[in-house]
Write a structure and sequence with these properties.
By secondary structure, this protein is an alpha/beta fold. It has nine helices and nine strands. Helix 4 crosses helix 5 and helix 7 crosses helix 9.
């Protein structure tokens, strides 16, 4: 998969692209990432990429011409029309399903804005707008990093275990349950017996049940929207009974 990141600060992506999963994915040829400096496509000799907003107001707004020219270069470099996503708090909320969808978009362009936002006409150059949460960042670089990292996990071969992405939190709309490693006992806290007995069917059931329990405790809103299987509904009923929780508002 080829990903282009349009940004005014390409240098900030160096560390994350040279670390962990993204580094291994690049070295294996599964992921290509090019950072494109929007300033290189400014149309004046001063390298101007922002200007004051029409009608007044605080801050500066990213100009349309440099972004348009940068995207034109991407089209020439990739040899095709890419899928363009703007990083903006006005976009759709980023989630696992969005990451899974973006992993199928090749080439993909992530546009990291800065200043007070984009000139409205830049939106007409894009296919998607994505927000990583209801808060404001100085620029879209951190959002682009999050989207890139989460999306890359769904590329075939990127993760050592092909099932890892599917067992993460939110992969089925629920939170992941508790995880344990050695030692068996630490500060009086022991690994649950079911995980030590080697009965895989029992372990799978326990993990599904604890996933439901954790989601109920921490993100009940996810349970309301989740499409549960018959088995999951039975397990949830057990959790509600064990924890003495009224589940009427879940259905």
């Amino acid at each position: 998969m080829k990903v282009y990141i349009l940004t005014l600060f390409p240098e900030v992506f160096g560390p994350i692209l040279q670390s962990s999963i993204l580094k291994r994915a690049k070295e294996a040829g599964l992921l290509q990432v090019k950072t494109v400096n929007i300033r290189d496509f400014a149309i004046d000799k001063h390298g101007t990429v922002d200007d004051y907003p029409y009608g007044g107001g605080p801050g500066m707004v990213l100009k349309p011409e440099p972004v348009y020219e940068a995207l034109a270069w991407v089209r020439r470099d990739s040899g095709t029309k890419p899928y363009v996503a703007l990083m903006t708090p006005q976009g759709r909320k980023f989630a696992t399903q969005v990451a899974r969808d973006l992993a199928k978009r090749d080439p993909l362009v992530l546009v990291a804005g800065h200043y007070e936002g984009f000139d409205e006409r830049i939106r007409s150059f894009s296919d998607d707008e994505i927000s990583i949460g209801d808060f404001v960042l100085t620029g879209g670089e951190i959002a682009a990093m999050a989207v890139l990292d989460a999306t890359s996990r769904f590329l075939p071969g990127v993760l050592g275990d092909a099932t890892s992405a599917e067992s993460d939190s939110f992969s089925d709309g629920l939170l992941e349950g508790p995880q344990y490693t050695r030692p068996q006992e630490f500060l009086g806290m022991e690994v649950p017996l079911v995980l030590r007995q080697g009965d895989m069917a029992a372990i799978v059931r326990w993990r599904r049940k604890e996933s439901l329990r954790r989601t109920l405790e921490r993100r009940k809103d996810l349970l309301r929207d989740a499409v549960l299987t018959y088995e999951q509904r039975r397990l949830l009923a057990e959790v509600l009974e064990e924890d003495r929780v009224d589940g009427k508002d879940l259905w």
